Amino acid sequence: MNLSELLNMDMATLGRMARSGFDWWVRELESMAPAGLLRGKRLTAWHRYELGRDQGTVIPASRPETDTLVIPAELCLVRTLSLPRLPQADLAALIALDADRIMPVPADSVVIGIRTLGPIEDGPGSGSGPDMVRVKVGALPLVRARAIVDAAQAAGAAPTHVGPLDETGQQLDFDLGPALRQAGLMPPRPAVARFWWAAVAVLVLINIGTAVLRDQQQVDRLQALVDAQAPAVGAVRRIEDRVIGNARLVGALNARRAAHQPLRLLATVGGVLPEKAWIQRFEWDGKSARLTGYAAPGINVVSALKASGLFASVRASRAETVAETETGRPFDLVLVPRGGDAT
Questions:
Q1: How far apart are CA 264 and CA 160, in angstroms?
Q2: 247: number of CA atoms within 13 Å, CB side?
Q3: Residues pairing with 111 in the sheet
Q4: CA atoms within 13 A on the CB side of 117
Q5: Cα–Cα distances in Å, from 82 out to 25, 76, 138, 143?
Q6: Who's near 75: CB < 8 A, 6+ residues apart?
Q7: Given this model, what pLDDT does residue 321 score?
Q8: CB atoms within 10 A of CB 184
Q9: What are phi and psi of 52, to 5 degrees?
Q10: Beta-carbon neighbour count of residue 163 at 10 Å?
């Protein structure tokens, strides 16, 4: 079935498909539940069918709302089979297909009810595995089934479950009601239970949708709060970036000032300069220093500076020559402290 065929269906067909799908879903849930949970509650009242000389009669229960009709066990043909573990509906379909072999009468002359007794435990020589179950199969002749339904209607009873009692006498051994309804001998079950199950499913979906909607509303409310604070957050971030930039600039200036301190270099030069030499001019460009001054005759300023080992390079400047005076010989030197880039 494609989408076009689905859209062209009338509402009645869609309703039948939805009802069939819902019934299948309920049957699947029943097949997953423990067998002991689905055996039903104990019967406290039931209509009773009794055999007479000519025809049977139905004795109504004390409570008219009782939906169970108990028939004598001798009216049914009963067999117990070992079958694969399958959902109840699949077991019923499997037995219906093989009914001619299972029962000694034709399949179209009986109505069949089944009951799963439980899994077959492994044992020596059992030849069975954990995926096998014991199934009780009961067959009621169609002629007798029609007489039972007619007697129930004559007595004013409207049962939905029909079958003999089990060995405990407190619940049906197997239920022939579904087969009787499928054969058209009993009216279909009212859709009240199906309606309430559908209502429960719809309410569950509504609850899930409401939870999702409320969660989305909370997310939208939080997003609106974030959007409202976005301008203030942007301003704070700009101020923070400006403060960080200023801090980096101050740090760079402090590092540059610490690395290029002219007074420290001047003190170093003054400490190694000979006593009879003095500085007239001192220039510092961050990498090298230029010293201009005078020294007494016989004083070698270049040798003294080189001997200190504090400078990577000590050389004469190529600038203009300073005139010699009566007090001393001039010197014009370029010094590069150790670690400097100039050579």
A1: 112
A2: 6
A3: 140
A4: 17
A5: 26, 19, 14, 29
A6: 51, 140, 141, 144, 164
A7: 58
A8: 8
A9: -115, -175
A10: 23
Q: Model pTM?
A: 0.47
CB count, 10 Å around CB of 292? Answer: 16
Question: What does the DSSP 8-state code read for residue 189?
Answer: P
Q: In the chain, where do the E strands start and end?
A: 47-50, 57-59, 68-70, 77-84, 110-119, 132-141, 161-163, 277-284, 289-295, 311-316, 329-337
Digit-coded pLDDT (tens) for 68-104: 899 999 999 999 999 988 887 888 889 988 888 988 8
**Rounded to whole angstroms, how far apart are CA atoms 200 and 249?**
70
Return all residues near 59 (Cβ < 8 A) that are at least 6 apart.
47, 48, 49, 50, 155
pLDDT computed for residue 240 by the predictor: 93
Instruction: Answer whether 56's CB lies under 8 Å from 151's CB.
Output: yes
CA dihedral 52, 55, 58, 59 (to 10 degrees): -30
* Nearest alpha carbon to residue 141 among 47, 58, 75: 75
Token digits of residue 284: 């510092």
- Given a cut of 50, the residues of the chain with pLDDT beneath it are 37, 125-127, 340-343
Tell me how long the chain is.
Answer: 343
The residues near 54 (Cβ < 8 Å, ≥ 6 apart) are: none
Spatial distance between the Cα atoms of 315 and 137, rounded to a whole number of angstroms: 120
Rounded CA-CA distance 8/179 in Å is: 33
Q: Are 166 and 172 in contact (CB under 8 A)?
A: yes
pLDDT of 325 reads 66
DSSP secondary-structure letter at 41?
Answer: P
